[in-house]
């Protein structure tokens, strides 16, 4: 026979129930309750020992223990229990909160009577929470929550009962479950206040343990329905969750790499909630990386163009080269002036040009030497005089070679031209 085990653990009491059926939807096979004593170890150790003993007994009786669910009420105790279970090789145990187990039981109760939606009033310690459970997929929508220790608890429950009928659509039934509360008295108080049927579990003490067995047996179905339909069921309020998302905000999720039922610590629920939006981040990273590469390429291209343009721009307006160009052209016009162009600054001094007028008086003494032969001076010697005058004119055109004027002066006075007229007196004799 296939059976499921549900365990309800509190700091002082442990309740266990065996339910028939693969989905834990059958009758109760057996149940047990024992108090936690300090002499026999912690509550965690005693729960682990009870689970191991139940597995051995089921195997000896020929039963197949398919699933195990444990209800916890404290995060620290749940973490310690998880570690202890893994240490003993019990990695297929589902840890659920009390509100989670209550929602699973409300879904099973609604399915049994054919309700599409069932209102769940869960009273836990000093808090009452009203939720709406969808029978089809197990999704849970939290309506409101009230604290009961500050005033008249029944008055608060009356207000919550009125909120049930204010829902649209109105749930088809109200299921009351709690821990450490007289559920029978609460049910009797609420029945005349609402028009929908009010129900409660027959064995209130074992209700949470049975809910844990239901949650463990139907965990994969609850996970799928919660992921797909949790928000669609509550357009006007926050989603408290399916049997894996509890009305009091506690989450217990199956580990992605644990096919046999290992579950993640409840503290990690926020990471599981934001896992879906993070799926698109790699694409954004890829897009941003490609954009960055494109921008870097454009910047590199602009920089390379700027570097290649600067040298050409510097060469075009080079004023220094423009000043040097004319100096190279000037020496090419007069080849002999190339060596003289370098000492050009020496030709600038004005005193060098002043000796030129002193050279001009030099021709008068030459004329005095020519005066004795008067007839010759009238016929031909005047031409050389003009030649001597023309020689200084080119020197006057170039200001630099002014000091060279004295050099041609001695060449003009050479007596070769005057020597020609000397024999002229021969024809005078006849």
UniProtKB/TrEMBL annotation:
Ranges of biased composition (kind: Pro residues): 346-366, 403-430
The entry's keywords: Membrane, Transmembrane, Transmembrane helix
Transmembrane is among the record's keywords: yes
Transmembrane segments: 283-307
Region annotation (Disordered) ranges: 312-430
Record's compositionally biased regions (Low complexity): 376-402
Any Pfam family: DUF7159
Annotated DUF7159 domain residues: 2-226
InterPro entries: DUF7159
Protein name: DUF7159 domain-containing protein
